[in-house]
Amino acid sequence: MKSLVPPVLRDEPQFARLFIGQSLSVVGDRVSFVAVPFAVLSVGGSASDVGLLAAAGLVPMLLFALVGGVWADRFPRHRIMLVSDLVRFAVQGIAAALLLTGVAEVRHLVLLMIVFGTADAFFMPAATGLMPLLVGADRLREANALRGFVQSAGLVVGPALAGGLVALAGPGGALAVDALTFAASAAFLARLTPRGTAPGTPPSAPGGKFLGELRAGWTQVRSRTWVWSGMAAISVYHVVVLPAVFVLGPVLAEDEWGGAVGWSVVTAGFGIGSIVGDVCAYRIGVRHPMALAAAALAVGSCQAVIIGSGATLAVITVLEAVTGVAVSLFFVIWETALQTHIPEAALSRVSSYDYLLSSGLMPLGLALAGPVSDSLGVRPTLYAMTLVAVPASLALLCVPAVRRLPAHAPDTAGGGDDVRTATEAGVP
To answer: What is the pLDDT of residue 155?
Structure first.
């Protein structure tokens, strides 16, 4: 009988450990995704406060993402991720305790989210850079698709669990579960033994100069049209589209869809679509994957108008599932392209610029979504978001280097539209 275990999990035991630990953590993340907005509302917060809290978790990305990228190219990436998980375990545990004891205020939650976001800023570049040290180059797309599958499945399991937890134990109980999943993830990270840095791409020395290493990472970005244009499109998605999901979606859910339960249904629909997208990314290989990714991003950028369409909850859920397919396809392809075409020794720095220009700028959209919707109305704001985001993603499809980027790196390290060796591109 053919094994149901994907080959990449059988053949790459270190990745299997990471996969299990992150699978547990992702469920907690998805619980938190639903619970945090309602935690703010439960202590008397407004729509603007929901946006403020989400922004507080992302502002540290502006301050620490580049530091995290340099550190992750200097030091063991899995150790950075371990420390980050332990910090987030503590933060979510404290938030849960404050909510369960009834003493939480919006300002407490904002301060805790700043600490949480700081830990995130170090975790994300390290996680992207860790993958080539756990998985062979020919298995990166499969591994990223499986990671995406877990994240998408978490959008189904997590919100369903969150809806029950919020109803039974309040947002504090839901955050306590999230805290425990960070502890579980840390336990698996502690057992990882990644391979060494790939031959030909010497790692940064601990005594290297920070600004020099940062400039070397930026050289990797600006020398590839497909990288910087992709980052620009992703920034628009994070700044314009995602505030509709993080801020205005829960507000509409509270007013029209039955609160946390209704929002959980919509989020689960997106998760189901994301699972389908990850399966497609795992099974389907194309010669020029970034062209497909750009088209998928245009579809995913329609989320704001769908949420504000005024359609029934069932119709919105189905349409969100379609956007889930597209968003998963895009991010699996994008992450695999970076890991394939960027020298491994500079990968965390490049990904830190990615996070800085996307998640780091996202607080601007989150902070403005509430006040703008208070002035213009929720639905007009959602329609305006779509009119900005969809053309931006279509513009990405017009970039020749995006349409022509091959699925596999050429023999010369670096790849993309400006083929360079690691040394030529400024990797220390």
So the answer is: 67
